[in-house]
Every structure is written in structure tokens, then in C-alpha cells.
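HUMAN: Forgive my ignorance: could you write out one protein's sequence and C-alpha cells?

ASSISTANT:
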Amino acid sequence: MFCQNCGERLESQNQKFCASCGSVLPHTPNAPQLKAEENQASSTVRSVPVYEPKPIKVGGPGPHSQRCFAFAIVSIALAIAGFIFGGSSFFRFLISSMFYPYYPIGLGGGLVTIIIAIILNIAGLIFGILSRVNSRKAGEIEPINTLEKFGSVVSVFGIIMNTIPLVITPIIILVVPYLFMPIYY
């Protein structure tokens, strides 16, 4: 017996598929059928699920990628602005604490700039988090692109740059004046 599709010789008359080309062979009624044993143990062969491949997304950066990048840049800019405001106030605070230890607050007009710096850092932290959220959304529904990847990395730096001053500033304000206060026995 031969395959009708490729002409290859069949190994047995009970074959359902051609070993060469894989085509389905017609069933011949006069061929003897092999009977399976009824007490046969369960088969160890398992079916393998077939998964559909993910479709490749084509196109440029979408709106989430653009927002991710923009929010990351704003986060870095706010961190720099917070550093400028907070840094000038910090040095003013440090110098006044060293030379004028009798004034426990030691800030004078710098208190307003420290509050502005804290507000800028909080806003920068929020923009950094928004950038990460948009990065996640872009990864789910938009094609992979450099703008989203760069924005994602920059947003991590923005989050770090805005978190450090928010943690350190209250510690410095509470500890530094007491380091330079005269001790009376």
C-alpha cells in the first residue's frame, strides 16, 4: 500500500497518517483492525497545550510611552529644583546653627524655602510614580520602544532623587541644632 499524497510505501495497513508527509490516510474497510486491550493501563502520553503566539505590536511610541517619558523628565526637574531650594536653605540652616546656637530653630527666612523644597520633592515623587504607572501600561498595550524604556529608567532616578531629601531633611532639621548647642553643666 502507498500514500496517495507523496507515494511513500506505508509500513502497515492500519496506519492513519503517512510517516513521510503526515497526510491523513483513507480508512480501508477490508484491512484488519487492531483491537486495544480493555485492561490497558492509562497512557503516559500527555497532550501538550498549544499556545497562540503573542502578536507583534508594530508602531511608534504610544501615549503611555510619551507620558512615561514626560513625567520622568518632570520628576527629575522637580528633584533638581528641590535640591536648589533645599540646598541653599540647608547651608543657611547649618551655618546659623553653628554660629548662633542660642536660636534653636536656626532657620530664619530659610524655613519657607525648605517648605518649598519639600513640596517640590513630594510633587517630583508623585510624577516619578506616575511615570512608572504609565511605563507599565505602555509595556502591556504598546510596542516596545526606546522612549518608554528610557522614561522608565529616568523615573526610577527621579523617585530616588525625590525620596532622599524627603527622608533626610526632617532628620537634619531635628538633629543639627542640638549638635552645636552649648552644653551647660
Observations:
- DSSP finds three helices and no strands in the chain.
- Residues 33-39 have pLDDT under 50 and may be disordered.
- The CA atoms of residues 5 and 23 lie 7 Å apart.
- The first helix runs from residue 63 to 99.
